[in-house]
Amino acid sequence: MRVFLLLLLSLAPWVVADVYKTVDKDGRVIYTDKPKSDNAQKVELREINTVPGAQPLPESTPVESFQSQPAAMSYQIEIISPRNELIIPVGQRDLAIAIKVEPELQPDHLLVYFMDGELLEETSMTNIIVKDVPRGSHNLVVEAIDANGQSLGTSAPVSVSLMRPIVKKPAPPTPTPK
User: What is this structure's pTM?
Assistant: First the structure.
């Protein structure tokens, strides 16, 4: 059986047929191994790209050892917008917060946004918008947590201030003599 298989494999290079390209009267391109007209052009086929298979993992490394030791993951979190000490102009009540997380956030991890120590939002998004920010100064902090609520990294606090509108009081009327 092995001899037959080796004989068959050794004949494989001679079995490959040439490929020809022709165009019929309707303008359709036809590829064939049996040209039927004089205008058939031989197609030069490129060598097929091959990739060697992956090597199997050594059996001395049991999979259980990886699963029994949870990886100590930590994130570097930076609030990139708003910048520290930003003064939000009069009339603007919404605040866009954008952060940078390295490495990329894992699917089962969340980002927790805080303003003045109070929870704003738990999400996997690196950008959020806080609506109707109250006037005054506020501290923003973002923390990454795992599925169990364990902290995996915290940003440096960023301080922002929302300006109060300045209302000019009308000047008191000047008294007129009677």
Answer: 0.54
Domain count, the chain: 1
- In DSSP terms, 29 is beta-bridged to 23
Question: Is there a contact between 162 and 138 (Cβ–Cβ < 8 Å)?
Answer: yes
Which residues span the domain enclosing 136?
76-162
Kindly report, residue by residue over 6-22, the tens digit of the pLDDT: 666 666 555 567 788 88
The string of pLDDT tens digits covering residues 115-163 is 999 999 999 999 999 998 888 899 999 999 998 999 999 999 999 998 7
In a domain, 115, yes or no: yes
pLDDT at 42 over 60: yes
What 58-61 contacts at long range (C-beta under 8 Å, 24+ apart), as own/partner pairs, is none
What's 97's domain CATH number? 2.60.40.10
Answer whether residue 113 is part of any domain: yes
